[in-house]
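Limitations

Structures in this collection are predictions, not experimental determinations, and the ligand pose is part of the prediction. Treat each record accordingly. The example that follows, with 2-acetamido-2-deoxy-beta-D-glucopyranose as the small molecule, is included so readers can see exactly what is and is not provided: the inputs are given verbatim, and the output is the predicted complex.
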Amino acid sequence: MMLLSMYVVLAISALSAYGAGTSFVLVGDSTTANGTTPNSGGWGNGFCASLVEGTACINTAHNGATTGSFVADGFWDISLSFIRSEVAKQRRTLVTIQFGHNDQKIAPPESMGANMTVMVDTIRSLGAEPVLVTSLTRRSFNSDGTISDQLGPWADETILISQQKQTHLLDLHAKSIEYVEAIGPDAAHRLNRLPDDNTHLNVNGTIVFGRMVADLMAASFAGQLPIVPNPPLTFNITNGIPSF
Ligand SMILES: *[C@@H]1O[C@H](CO)[C@@H](O)[C@H](O)[C@H]1NC(C)=O
Ligand SMILES: *[C@@H]1O[C@H](CO)[C@@H](O)[C@H](O)[C@H]1NC(C)=O
Ligand SMILES: *[C@@H]1O[C@H](CO)[C@@H](O)[C@H](O)[C@H]1NC(C)=O
Ligand SMILES: *[C@@H]1O[C@H](CO)[C@@H](O)[C@H](O)[C@H]1NC(C)=O
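Predicted complex:
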């Protein structure tokens, strides 16, 4: 019993040591961003809510952004100033990068990849760690129940850059397709911001996909991060059960 409680105390202090020492900065488009209805929009806020309380998690993703417009419109500079300030606090600073939804409307995948490569190099030059994330799927279904996917080549490009640059990779695209195909169109659409908006998420959607990213992150970093487990939600996600 005493040994057990000692173990718990040790585990908790290890967690809070990581909590003080690790920060997250999120970079991307509206499928990561905080939405107009608080905590809706993208997976970012659900992910931040999955962390040990007090962990810095700064969602700098922006609606409508491509890798090019994110830089040109000044949002990248905002991300960089947060990254600099987290690194200056001597925190391990992980920076997620997820694009594709808007890049695909203007240019071939290689254009996004080249821009992502520059972002990865810049993040490293500041002493932070890039984590590439493939695009969250849209909830648009074919009549046979499979996802009508348009984002595959942009997910593949993200994977390619992660291999070339040897970064951590979270394959959210594959994992989210697998889950929404398992729960089916009705349950998948209940996670939409509006019933016919298959791109953005309501609050329940950010909880589900934020947990999915948290679990992919925890697996990629083998338990080193201040992520609070949520076994029942993870169970639903891994077994294709709708939570909402
Ligand atoms: C998201 O934005 C809303 C305003 O629209 C704000 O009230 C809320 O605090 C933001 N949430 C986070 C986690 O930044
Ligand atoms: C990548 O960045 C360049 C500017 O450096 C821009 O011209 C191009 O449109 C960007 N590509 C995408 C897909 O945003
Ligand atoms: C898991 O799914 C079940 C069945 O839909 C639901 O009742 C439960 O609330 C879900 N649990 C979580 C944590 O979302
Ligand atoms: C989220 O799920 C809860 C519980 O099922 C439900 O009451 C609520 O209406 C849902 N929210 C949205 C925005 O769909």
